[in-house]
Amino acid sequence: MTVHVVGAGVAGLAAALALVRGGRRVALHEAAPVAGGRARALPDGTDNGTHALLGANRAALRFLGQIGAREGWVEPEPAGLPVLDLETGTARRVALSPLGWGDANRRPEGVTLGSLLALLRLALPGPDRSVAAAFAGHPRLLRALVEPLTVAALNTPVAEASARLLGAVLRRLGGRGAARLFVARQGLGPDLVAPALATLACHGANLRTGSRLRSVTQEAGRATALDFGEAVLVLGPEDAVVLAVPPWEAARLLPGLPVPQRHAPILNLHFERVEEGPVRFIGLLGGLAQWVLVRPGGVSVTVSAADAAVGLTDAAAAARIWPELRQAALRFGLPGPWPEAPPPARAVRERRATPRHGLNPPPPPPRRPLANLVLAGDWTMPMLPATLESAVRSGEAAAAALSRASRPVPA
Ligand SMILES: Cc1cc2nc3c(=O)[nH]c(=O)nc-3n(C[C@H](O)[C@H](O)[C@H](O)COP(=O)(O)OP(=O)(O)OC[C@H]3O[C@@H](n4cnc5c(N)ncnc54)[C@H](O)[C@@H]3O)c2cc1C
Prior knowledge:
Elements: E1 2-6, H1 10-21, E2 25-29, E3 52-54, H2 58-66, E4 73-74, E5 81-85, E6 91-94, H3 113-121, H4 131-134, H5 139-154, H6 163-172, E7 181-184, H7 188-202, E8 207-208, E9 215-219, E10 222-227, E11 232-234, E12 240-243, H8 247-253, E13 263-272, E14 280-285, E15 291-295, E16 298-303, H9 314-331, E17 345-355, E18 373-375, H10 388-406
Parallel strand pairs: 1-2, 1-12, 2-8, 5-14, 12-18
Antiparallel strand pairs: 3-7, 4-7, 5-6, 9-10, 10-11, 13-16, 13-17, 14-15, 15-16
Helix pairs in contact: 1-7, 1-10, 2-10
Organism: Falsiroseomonas selenitidurans
Pfam family, one: Amino_oxidase
Region (Disordered): 340-371
């Protein structure tokens, strides 16, 4: 009686953890050489891309607690996010939640009664429209806060991003501590993937890497065999499957499944820079760089919704981004030398980083398309953008759906 979790991204890891905690025997299968999926460490230890969590991401933070990794996620900017506007030269600290805007020093530009009402209107029911259309009358708040938040949380340009989904994100920022921002102190390897695998191993759930599921055999609405190429696993009557793979793989394995078809890229640029000092996180407006994460081991820059930027060469991206981040580093007094010439840098391009969160999303897939097979993955959660939070929640929901399915029906 084994549950085969296919895909060791965060959704698969969260599903596996929920299952072993519920007393189930779990086998984890991963196609790549390492676990973590879209939140992984590269062979040299660099993160594929900077990952930030908000206090509102309660399931993701709870998951970190369960794997003993919560301490590794630090809050670099407890006094509000430092934001430099490269066009106007204005530097300020900004609170992400309107609850922090009582303090004028932490208020973004463009907060007026009218723009606050536009924010509130996002929470009301009504036909969906793009974020750009919803804030057409409030360009200053759109530029200073709404656009950076949309691009960061929805990875979709404001002209196409769903105002309704942004409203759902903003509503969750209202609670106490919900707008606090956390990042991994060392990186996704040591602060997320390794502790998750170690915790699972303690529960007897081991990972097989390089093990790509080629096809699922189905009979009478059940999965009966999993073909991994080098081996075909025949499923017993009590065995079950959590399919925690990205949407395009899920659609290949289960033809006809409704999945998101369009994705948006994220470009990350990692500069070599070994310099002791605290972890820092800075926002930039009006340039190519959007967020800068400074850690003792290097400086990483994120460009989300990077349709145009993803085509730049490493050298062209570094030549544009380094002067922007250097300006911010000097302006906010970050310690250490910040030479004019960019240090060596490497770009990581995730071309299908997340689904695009536009208007009229496809219907969510069924959680349990086959009697003994459930789906997990950031793309399976309606009304949540594709993030670590939705990945964890989807994994937990998949584990819960399997427990419900295996419960005897009362007479
Ligand atoms: C650059 C970047 C930056 C991001 N920044 C943030 C952020 O700041 N905050 C945030 O919350 N989220 C962020 N995200 C989103 C977050 O990483 C994802 O939402 C999350 O990791 C998705 O997890 P998942 O398990 O659903 O999918 P995946 O991570 O895609 O996991 C699926 C796994 O299945 C494996 N697989 C695929 N096919 C098969 C097969 N046939 N057989 C076996 N295994 C298979 C894959 O190799 C992969 O390991 C970012 C994503 C990227 C790419």
